[in-house]
């Protein structure tokens, strides 16, 4: 099923499903960076697609995909390394 998210509401980077609050027992949405842009990955894609993390940017220091984009800086939530967005 293809979902279409509107420009004013974020959606899944992979399937474009509009954001929703998952049940407390479910996996939460994953926050990541892809091509220098902050993205979200829905719980369904994390479960159903074994390769969901392959298209995400990786930390230059430790290789982690646990990145956030904050005030023009890409911050690694695994090791704390920062880099300028788009560098």
How would you explain this protein's 3D organization?
By secondary structure, the chain is mostly beta strands. The protein contains one helix and five strands; from the N terminus they run E-E-H-E-E-E. Strand 4 and strand 5 form a beta hairpin. Strands 3-4-5 form a three-stranded antiparallel beta sheet, with no helix packed on it. A two-stranded antiparallel sheet has the order 1-2. The model has no long low-confidence stretch (mean pLDDT 89).
Structural class by SSE content: mainly beta
How are the strands of the biggest sheet laid out side by side?
3-4-5
Number of strands: 5
Written as H for each helix and E for each strand, in order along the chain, the element string is EEHEEE
Percent of residues in helices comes to under 10%
User: What is the terminal separation in angstroms?
Assistant: 35 Å
Q: In this structure, how is the largest beta sheet organized?
A: 3 strands, antiparallel
Mean pLDDT comes to 89
Low-confidence stretches: none
| Cα gyration radius (Å) | 13 Å
* Shape descriptor: globular
Strand portion:
15-25%
* Helical stretch tally: 1
Question: Gist?
Answer:
The protein is mostly beta strands and 87 residues long. It has one helix and five strands; from the N terminus they run ββαβββ. The chain starts with 29 loop residues before the first strand and ends with a strand.
Keywords for this structure?
87 residues; mainly beta; 5 strands; 24% strand; single chain
Sequence-ordered SSE layout with sheet pairings:
Blueprint: E1 30-34, E2 37-41, H1 43-48, E3 67-70, E4 73-76, E5 82-84
Antiparallel strand pairs: 1-2, 3-4, 4-5
């Amino acid at each position: 099923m293809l979902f279409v998210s509107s420009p004013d509401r974020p959606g899944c980077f992979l399937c474009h499903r509009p954001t929703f609050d998952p049940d407390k027992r479910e996996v939460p949405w994953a926050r990541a960076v892809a091509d220098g842009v902050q993205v979200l990955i829905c719980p369904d894609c994390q479960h159903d697609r074994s390769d969901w993390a392959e298209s995400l940017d990786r930390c230059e220091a430790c290789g982690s995909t646990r990145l956030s984009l904050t005030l023009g800086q890409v911050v690694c939530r695994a090791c704390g390394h920062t880099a300028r967005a788009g560098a």
